[in-house]
Amino acid sequence: MSYQTIGKPLPRIEGTDKVIGATRYAADLPIPESLYAKVLRSPLAHARIRSVDTAEARTLPGVHAVLTGADLPEVYVGLRMKDMPVLARDKVRFVGDPVAAVAADTPEIADAALRLIEVDYEELPGVYDPLEAVKTGAEPLHDAPRDYKNAPPLAEGVEPDRPNVQSHSVWRNGDLDAGFESADRVFESTFATQLAHHGYLEPHACTVAVDASGNVEVWASNKGPFALKNRLSQDLGIEPEKVNVHILSVGGDFGGKASMIDTPVCYFLAKHTGRPVRMVLTYTEEIATAAHRHPAVVTLRTGVRNDGALTAIDGKVTFAGGAYAAWKANPEITVMGAKRLASYYRVPAIRIETVCAYTNQVPCTQTRTPGSPQIVFAVESQMGHIAREMGIDPADFRLRNLLDPGDTSPLGARWEGILAKETLEKAVEASGWRTDRPGPNHGRGIALYERGAGGGNANAGIDLDEDGTVTVLTGVPDVGPGIHTAITQIVSETLGVGPESVRIRVEDTDNSPWDPGTGGSKSTNTTGHAAHKAAREVHEMLVECAARKLGCQPDQVGRVDGRFAAPEGGELSFADVAQAAIAEAGGSFHHDTVFAPEGQPPITSFAAQIAEVEVDPETGQVRVTRMTTAHDSGRILNHLTYQGQIDGGVVNGVGFALMEDNPMSDGKITTLNLGDFKLPCAKDIPPLDTVFVEQGAGPVPFQGKAIGELPNVPTAAAIANAVADAVGVRVYDLPLTAEKVYAALHGSQATAT
Fold first, then answer.
1. 110, 223, 529, 671 — which has fewest CB within 10 A?
2. Helix, strand, coil shares of the chain as percentages rounded to 5?
3. CATH class of domain segment(s) 33-125+202-251+257-289
4. Confidence bin at 750 (pLDDT 50/70/90)
């Protein structure tokens, strides 16, 4: 078949519109007669609300509505766990908690109205340390958290009176006591990671309109339009058929654009005023009040024999979940990363306990590879420490313990096509690990990770036009990774037409096929499979139609240069067959399909990274000089977008390792702009060498494997290990700032080790 587009570096189909500024985002849409919404937010981390006086604000000219929690139904919202009121009712639980909302003719009038609202608070003790938060006697943030809808059950044996527990899980396998008894040495370390924002450039924005019949239209920067529709319906008591969410391009996500941060507030304001209501957060509001990555404290106790073989791991992970669990797709979404604790190593006995605590900080949510960057920083840092203490080369130590084909993971998973060692060896070879030696104050570090492609159902549709144009109908938004380009390539190759003949159409939840939304490294494995299945089914229909026109059997029809050919020499163009199919269908050709991932093999993907750094011992400044990243990739559908995911992931990992941090003082985030909250820029990014291990079949169409949530995870640990190699000291908490490295070099590091 002609038009082989799979494996080619097809440019992003939406790239031109983004570059020239034609792509329209949620804040760009001119919804007629829209009012502007602003929210009054708590200045205190924890307090009771004694009273809210809105009388003066309501009389300000240009103000159409002022709402408080007392004006709304007593509903609680959440992606899964319903523990957050739309507006605070009796308590505020973090600095930035919404207390009142205003809709006005202009943003300036709305801001003026906020300044006229008076709130009387009774301040309560703040709870910031997740380890302290779950101790008996700690100040409770919620009176009965287990009573919230969809609250997860606590792990067996957990005391029911422990306060501030969002979720608590324990996984175990093997005889832990026997594992430690067989060890020649036992290592114990505690690591910590920071509170940090996702760093997308587009702030949260949405507009909601409610008509006289109660029909709701939503334009939101949200990566899961169908999920948003369902949650609005369920949480606010709206009939599902009355909610229509428009599917828009999203200007960056990394996990932060799934929650209902602003939409319920706009809904109630729109319902109250009878006008569309728009809310666009400032970036200060984004950093102060939108969801963040969970800080974590990870304690690892690991047993090792003298030959370097691991015998047992006991891990305790405590996440600071923030004031509410509502912004997590699952209350345990961040702790699920703990199930990958040492998942690619041969560990005969393991126990992993995870606690996610309510704390008086901005709520946290899934962030690119939920929970895993925190966990892997700890695990791979400790592996580097153990290798160094035992005098074993860090690469050899890992090769001694990595899974081989046929092995089960520590928690019993059985994967096909394990390529952990091959991936590490590729990284070692490409980096010159065994041949080059770093100079003084230069070091190298290794880290690894594994993650498979997420699964789930998805739908797709295909329309044919008489000129041969193929239109793919999908409900997945463009969030940045290039899923629409991947769909174009999949359909182009399957139907045997050029990619320029394929169009992608997304509209809204009323008129687009249902889609689970992006996230979980699954889009190509769900939406891509749905498009692939639809294209295969349409191709079969077209072959049968061509056979009827050519006077032969369907199995005799060949494809030559995009044309349908009979064995005796007759040919039809794709457009000819499309016209015939349209005529047979009665004037239009449309085909829908549903993909369900039954029978997909259990396959994961491996990543190995080697960082090279230079450390200035006089200042502690760390400079990353080179990164080598190797990926168990399967067949790569598009080298350009695949490499883009790796480049972006490594940049993300460098930021997590060295600079990204939103520290708090008395519950207030102190880095409230993009100058203070430092993200990596071009000067911070080292040369990157990428190696692909393309052997082995993956689960996604054309045997590809996941990539979106792998390259960002090992980076921080690889850099931390490189710093330890360069100057002989280890920093146990992120980010690895110059101050922390300097303190460690001069013996004043306070972090537990």
1. 671
2. 30, 25, 45
3. alpha beta
4. very low
